[in-house]
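ok so for the tutorial part 2 we go from a plain amino acid sequence to predicted structure tokens. step 1 is just haveing the sequence, like this:
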Amino acid sequence: MLNFRAKTFLCACKHMNFTNAAAELGISQPAVSQHIRRLEEDYGVKLFRYEGKKLCLTDEGKVVLAAVQTMNNDEHILRQRISAMQENRKKYCFGATHTIGDYLIADHLAEFLRENPDSNVDIYIDDTENLLRDIDEGRIDFAIVEGFFDHSRYETMPFSTEYLLCVCGADYDIPEEISPEELFCHRIIAREPGAGTRELLDRALATINRSVDSFCSHVIVGTPYAVKALARRNCGLAFLYESSAKEELAAGTLRQVRIRHFNPQYRFTFLWKSGSMYKEDFLRMYRRLVGNQVPDMSVKTIL
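step 2 — the prediction. this is what the tokens look like for a chain of 303 residues:
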């Protein structure tokens, strides 16, 4: 169970400002400073330092933060489990990015729910960056994410490998196969910066020294549904995971445009806070969601 000094430290790390941390905690700024000083005395290290006027964690402070975040996450899970035990039911709380939550886990999750009718399941669908923050702050137990992150802060398992396909509407004027240079003569329909597919698309384009701005024009939207909706209406080209475009490709409302020598593939990752005492529980759910078959991750991934 976290003591008040550890909670003060977490809040100070959240704001990187003792005054703002004090306001959130409802205590004085000198009290925040005192709590941090006592922690530093306990561990015999400095936790914060200033770079100019900016407050930053020391290297030792980063280590302490990772440990306290794990303890905070485990305490959150413990409280959930105690509450669920009192209600005579199990509680699961996890996150997934849009593609994973909307397309990849539905079948296995549905099977789990049928077999566990008394379980409560909370699923947060969000971008990778926000899901990682939710894990760090103890709001969710684990997550299935896409894109890139600091592997040193989490324990991970491979979830799946996905192709990123270039697609367009059925009547969009473009050949079935084009060169990379021809690609940029068209409008691109893409997610906003920070979204998983956008980050992966940006990195893939960077391998051929291009970016979203290289297209003749662009439309930036906030959801994968809007990307598909505009692509179906022949408004331009879009890059979608194969799993998320499967139904539209089969129905003929979208068609794939093959780009010579450009075939990006990416991995989805199941992860939780490093050092969690609930690791075995997370792995049991992992095996349920991948259907007891660990995916082959030997495929080359663009980084």
